Request: fold
Amino acid sequence: MRRVLGVATALALVVAAADGFLLWARGLATPVGPERAAASYLAGQGGPVGPDPPGPRPPAGVYRYRTSGYERIDRFGVDRAYPAETVRVVTWRGGCRWRETVPIFTQHVETYDFCATGADADDFAYSTSLTYFLVPGVQRFACAPAGRRLLAGRRPGATMSWHCVEGTSASANTTVYVGPETVQTAAGPVATRHVRLITALSGQSSGGAVRDLWLDRDGLVVKEDRQVSLKIRSVFVGLLTYEERASFQLTGPADVPRATSREDGRGRRAKRLDGGELLAGALEVPRVCPA
Reply:
C-alpha cells in the first residue's frame, strides 16, 4: 500500500509540475522592435547591382506598423495581445527572389517569399513559426502554381486560385482583387490595390484564414486586416484551437542602422509612399532580377 501511495504521489507531483510549467510558459511573448529586426534579418544582407528593370518589390528595409489585435489558443488561457507597434522586413534573397518577414513576436514569425518579374510578383512560398509552451512549430509551404501578389492588370472582382503544400499538409488559396482604394497614412494618402486572400488549410493544421491587404504599387503592405481560425496538432499538448484577429497599418520606414549592402551609387534610402515625399530611414537596394 505504501508503495502504491508513493507511486500515486510521484505521479501527482509530475502532473502538477507539468501543469505549472505549461502555465508559466503560456505567456511567453517577446515583441520584436526595429533594431532587433534589423540585426536579425538585415545584417550582412547584400543587394543586387545594376539597372532597375520592371518588377514590383518594396525597397529592402524595416517598416513600422501601428498594430492591434491578439492571438489565443484554448489551452491554459493563452491570450497574447499584440504590441501597439510591429515591424516588417523586406530582404533580397538572390535573383528575382525577395522575402517579407513579419516578426510579431520572437515566438510568432511569418515569411512570404515572392519573385518580382514583369508587372507583378509571384508568391511562391510562405511559412509560419509559432512557439507555445517553449515548443516551436513551423510550417513552410511551397506553391505551384504560384500566386500573384498584386493581380496587376486585372479588373475589380477578378480572382485567382493557387495551391501550396508541405508534406501531407495543403493550402488552397484564392486571391480576389477587390479594387483600387486610397489609404490614409502618416505621410498622406496612398493609392493601393485592395486584394483579399482566402486560405483553406488541411493536414497538420486545418481551418481557414482571410487576409485583406492594401498594397502600394511596389507590393508593400500599407494596411492589413486578418482573421484566422485553425485546429493545430501539437505533439506536446495535443489538438489546439488557434484564433487570431489583427490589424496593421504602415506608419513609415524605421530609422535603424544600415545593413551591409551593395548599392547602385545613388544612395537611395527611402520608401516613396505616395509618389511624392520620401520618408527617411529605410534602406533601398537596386531592383534587379536576372533572367
